[in-house]
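We store sequence with structure; for instance:
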Amino acid sequence: MEELLINDVIKTIKKYFWVILLFAILGGVFGRIMTEDAPPPTYEATSLFLIEPKAEDMNGVFKQPVDSGRFFNTAQTIVNTPVMLDPTIKELNLEMTIKDLSEKVSVSNENNSNLMRITVSDNNAEQATDIVNKIVQVYNQEIYNYLDVEKVVTIEKAQSGGENQILHARPKANMLMGVLIGLVMGTFAAFILFRRAKTTR
């Protein structure tokens, strides 16, 4: 019985190999089409800078503001406001609104230190780098009007070609998955055809 079953499997694969192969090819093509419909890759550019609040002079002793947490929260929040984003849009001639740009920008504080990181995501790698560097430049010019800042120093400037690419689709993985599914479906179809041919004899 076992030997008969193995023989049937071998016969099915030999006779209907073209069916299995066809399904595998179609599965691969379908996987490729699904990849093409996926969103384009996103590029992230980041810049790291140091912001130092003005120290308070208390009887000749300089101290950092007591509420430094509020200071850095404000310094972080102000990055994503029109006072920083509007000049960026105008100077780079960007075809987007402040809201559009705001959605591309994220700000984080590095380990509760004086370091802040700005990250910009865009479908264009070069534009992501230009935007993040321009925001830091504008920030360095304008922040003194809103907070008591001693200095702002850029530690890491975003470099063209150094953007982080985020893929929203995996072409090879999708094609391989499509081929595997095609092989399974093709094998199933081959056995159905083999059984039908056997019963009609």
